[in-house]
Amino acid sequence: MQLTQRLITCAALTACLGVPARATAQQQDTTRGVRIGLTYQPGTKPGVVVFPVSGAGGDSLQAIVSRDFDYGDRIEVIGGDAVQETARQQAAKNAVDFTIWKSLSAAAVVQISVTGSTAHVNVYDVSAKKVAASHDVPVSGAPNTEDWRMSVHAMADQIEQWITGVHGIAATRILYVRGNRIYVIDADGFGEHPVSEPGTVLAPAWSRDGRTIAYSELVRSGWNIVIRDLATGREHSVTTTPGGLNITPAFSPDGQWLCYAHGDENGTDLYIVSASGTGAARRVTVGRGSDNVSPTFSPDGARLAFTSGRAGHPEVYTSDVDGSNVALLTPFNFGDQNYRSNPDWSPDGRLIAFQSQLDGRFQIMTITLRDQTVKQLTSEGINEDPTWAPDGRHLAFTSSRTGVKEIFVLDAESGRARQLTHDPGARLAAWSHSTSAP
Known about the structure:
Layout: H1 3-12, E1 47-50, H2 58-72, E2 76-77, H3 81-93, H4 98-103, E3 106-115, E4 118-125, E5 130-138, H5 146-164, E6 173-178, E7 181-186, E8 193-194, E9 201-206, E10 212-219, E11 222-229, E12 235-237, E13 245-251, E14 257-264, E15 267-274, E16 282-283, E17 292-297, E18 303-308, E19 315-320, E20 327-328, E21 340-345, E22 351-358, E23 361-368, E24 374-376, E25 383-388, E26 394-399, E27 406-411, E28 417-419, E29 427-431
Parallel strand pairs: 1-2, 1-3
Antiparallel strand pairs: 3-4, 4-5, 6-7, 6-29, 7-8, 9-10, 10-11, 11-12, 13-14, 14-15, 15-16, 17-18, 18-19, 19-20, 21-22, 22-23, 23-24, 25-26, 26-27, 27-28
Helix pairs in contact: 2-5
């Protein structure tokens, strides 16, 4: 079956697409924060003790910060009942016994106290026996509300940057499709709620600032590309190629442009249009009857990666954003099933994640732009539609490993995976770049 036919048929059934219709561009600010100079073994994760938190919502705040550190995979949280009892006693005396924490291989102690709408954060360097960082951080809303939780996530991300030099990803969100709506969920798996009206929808994508999303919606004339403001709920169409198939939108890194796939009886090609919905769409690919879908922008916005069937089967290609300098990225392997699709460009620009069919099942892979080295990241169940976190280390993807489709998060360095959704049928994830999404 031709790629376009598979897309149209499966889209109409709102089932998983033959080339699953998701592509989104995320771009990371690669400027690293200044580390506070903790001493710990290179190549290991620094051990951190999080003291009990005083003030409103203290228990929840401590639990969220500790979990955010754990999910970030760059910090080893030192816990347990005995550790927490010792920490509670020291917090009550407002004194840190560095000898105890050094014996437990802790590199840092985090102490937080909340007064009104401000959290005072001290990060202690255990080896140097001193305060390494001390800051007041705003806390929004009442404890355990959505705004409050997001401000706590942002606090954890900032502390992670002080300790490791890399900003955390806790204050980000992930879009996904289930049934006939698009949902959003926090990166720790809490706070899921719908962000689209009921209808036949596919392929959500984030704008860089996290305030708007784009997706494909089935209307009377066919599939349409819609941009929705998450704060106001206002929508507008940006499809200037009406009718037929309009799917897999992706925002440019500057948020000014949207690339999507438009299909008709002559095949499917990529087009770029202003995100404002004004002006004519510009054609990017000339597939000559083949299908070109699932675009993703490079972090600098100068290039695209996309799925194309021009070789007779789906592979991942790259081109300049104007469609020139087209090149095959995924190598042909004799004896393999040769079905590679749904690329997502990493925020640091070094890798492209994609799905590859192996032994009849899709698995998540990465390929380096420098030397085209391929790495397989998954093997359990069927795994599809990778989307990078803004740290360039974690990926969200659809997996059937529990027996139903759910969204999972994978640490690409350690291979550690965790289930994000508990919403059977969740698929087509898209990870936000911004930490300030409404």
